[in-house]
Amino acid sequence: MCFAMKRLGSTVLTLFVIWHTCDSGNVLVYPIEGSHWINMKILIEALHSKGHSITVLQSDKSWYIKEDPLFYETITLISSFRSGTHDVVYEMVVNMFEDKCLMKKLNESQFDLVLADPGLGAGAILAYYLQIPLVFNVRWTTTGEGHFDIAPSPLSYIPLTGTGFTDKMTFKQRLKNILHYFLTFYQKYVLIKPKYQAICDKYLQPKVDFFELQQAADIWLMRADFVFEFPRPTMPNVVYMGGFQCKPSNPLPQDLEVFVQSSGDHGVIIMSLGASVTQFPPDVAADLSDEIAAAFAELPQKVIWRHTGDKPATLGNNTLLVNWLPQNDLLGHPKVKAFVAHGGTNGVQEALYHGVPVVGLPLFFDQYDNLLRLQQRGAAKILSFETLDKTVFLQALQEVLHDPFYRMNMQRLSRLHKDQPMKPLDQAIFWIEFVMRHKGAAHLRTESYKMPWYAYHSLDVIGFLAFMAFTAVFLTVISIRYLFCRFCLKRKMKYE
Amino acid sequence: MCFAMKRLGSTVLTLFVIWHTCDSGNVLVYPIEGSHWINMKILIEALHSKGHSITVLQSDKSWYIKEDPLFYETITLISSFRSGTHDVVYEMVVNMFEDKCLMKKLNESQFDLVLADPGLGAGAILAYYLQIPLVFNVRWTTTGEGHFDIAPSPLSYIPLTGTGFTDKMTFKQRLKNILHYFLTFYQKYVLIKPKYQAICDKYLQPKVDFFELQQAADIWLMRADFVFEFPRPTMPNVVYMGGFQCKPSNPLPQDLEVFVQSSGDHGVIIMSLGASVTQFPPDVAADLSDEIAAAFAELPQKVIWRHTGDKPATLGNNTLLVNWLPQNDLLGHPKVKAFVAHGGTNGVQEALYHGVPVVGLPLFFDQYDNLLRLQQRGAAKILSFETLDKTVFLQALQEVLHDPFYRMNMQRLSRLHKDQPMKPLDQAIFWIEFVMRHKGAAHLRTESYKMPWYAYHSLDVIGFLAFMAFTAVFLTVISIRYLFCRFCLKRKMKYE
Fold first, then answer.
1. A151-173 in b/e burial notation, b at 16+ Cβ within 10 A?
2. Is the pTM higher than 0.80?
3. Which of B446, B447, B459, B465 to probe by mutation at the A interface, max A CB count within 10 Å?
4. Is A156 in Cβ contact with B455 (below 8 Å)?
5. Which of A33, A122, B240, B410 could disulfide-link B357, Cβ–Cβ 3.0 to 4.6 Å?
């Protein structure tokens, strides 16, 4: 407790400032590279602005996560390759546990919390080892979409990522969805678990199950919300912070503003295929770029296209090629009428936040599924690279530009998304601080994951009831048969 | 839009006040009597203070719901008996639909929302008839605890109300829990559904299922939270407002304050068995009251006991009998050390809010289960009326008074409960207004309840897969047998 006295005229002003250790927490972060790091950094900066100390674990081969002593301290782990895969994480974590000096430092640092992206498994292992609470910044865990690890997920209306299904499925789709789910078991138990389990077996207490460490996370800060995601069962310790990275737009650089204003009433289309894709795969690049450029050239709109490959031969005067674009500031510009996007989560969320309808060109992973969630709500139109040509692309652009349906729907989603009791980022920070204040959030987390799977699904009870029913039927049949036989025998004896 | 200008020195201060129609909504309320009405009235008063118009539907035999034109308009429905049971509601709703004049009024009133307590089924029917959004103020629906109607509820760790089990059950308890669940089917489909379904069949469109009307509610304002309730799966449209009725205490009336202060360092115990029970059942009243009074008389604490029966013969000087007590103000008083309570939700929530440990004397319905949730967290001790005598009661009181474990745990629950991003009542009002602003909250509600039950549980897919597996095994066996026979036959023929 800090105690200060200040004489103010004849009045003694007494200030009591109560200082809690948890008001300024000590957070250990285990992030993932690429777009995941962009998200994590937003949380780190917000935590830093609230006075918390942050330490980030990174690979010595890291290509995205840079040292930034203004916001966080860095602990570097040794790896043979650039981090990202489970093999590299295995190597990094083993190196970490074998480095006695580093482990001493971690043990002595008195961290209050591990904040981890559970797409890789190291964070959960670290939190258990240090015996401190765990908060996930999550959309994917090591084994798939985050909800599947903690919330009941009826496969009859919850489509698996990659299936391209919605929450309304035909019999055939439901069948495929269930088969797809069983296929993920192979990934989960054969490809993913053994490496992490080996670490648990060697460095943690005996009989610690790696998946249980994940399920023990106190709070799951989910990078989604139900304006974007199909409604589905959830758990009390899941906090939805979808769009937490979105913010009002800033003014554009002057040259870009001049270009945008030159579009007049027609407005502007922007096109970007995300942070890691600035051009198409080499085998289709030239053809596709030509088709797209030719379609753009026929429009009265201006176009800003993030494109680093060869200049398309069919490029029109209305199209500006750029290496990089201020995506959020453009999406928030009133002249921007449509967004041609690959469907990465960040871009989709930004489009939704600013209410700009999307023409989707999904490439891989969850991109089709992300775009599908907008298309289902009438806010996007998805095209396929396989069938893409000038005509198809032009038609889709004109539809999204001129049919008010798309813009109205996207604006409606934007209004719903922004109409929350609390901003998603503030909500995320509240719950991280909550976990530090109360040293966990056990009251929000079921311990059902500790049950054997057959007990969780009541299979032992169902088996017992089935056995009892079978026994009852069996005994009844036997008794009836016995009585019947005796009766027949008696009659037979009587009449003989 | 309202536009105001005010000259302030040389500055023109311009105020823009944007007025939305939905800022002042028109709410139709279908409440339930008794303690449910106490809760609903808090919501109504809060909505009224935000400028919304409220109309309350009540029975002409209502014994709790009074006209109160300051806060709401009243529409009176005719019933033969005091409202409360499903039979009376059936009669009231039929009378309502048959009253052409009243129906014209309801249709013309342009309500924005039905706010209903789903313990009775009329609210859901009205919302469907008027084709307006529906918000539930809920803990129980017509068929049981609210969650069971909309969220997946694995019976392996979610105990049914009335079982007295926790979220950690033995095999035998899980078996009983499942059997108990199947028993509720009788109540649900034989006792409850037919009457409401008859109304749907007669006055709504054909093929409207009553239970689907309930499941279609936009928002479920749940009178619970996970400081009180065991953690369990939930849905995006469930908003937890447990303890929304709780508030800081006001000063006590002077005579009571004097009595309380006279307790010195020993403090005060309060005892109340709820709004509807002020004395024990007649057959045990005298004996029990004597035992309780005798136990109180042995304590150095002062006691305030809400008791209207005969004065117990063993009453001590330290015990004050009252007809009514300001429960919230007493629970918030620093001198109050323990609360002897029957375990009604309101009382339990107030004790939790103020952090006062409880000695529980449950009478019926959910009271044991409510108290069990506190006992599990070490914040209450439950006694049974069957085994209650002076010794048992005195021992329990002394344990709760002197073992710091109880108070510490209850204070911890209180801190957790109060540490929310938003006050529960504000949260409830936000979501009611949200539903009015957006004319529903369809994006938060799954439509899985529209699926046939076998499809929801994927039983058709599982059946198909089992059939395919069976067919595959059968064909394999047939083929092997055929080949084997041919082979045997050939060998036989060869050697013969």
1. bbbebbbbbbbbbebebebeeeb
2. yes
3. B446
4. yes
5. B410
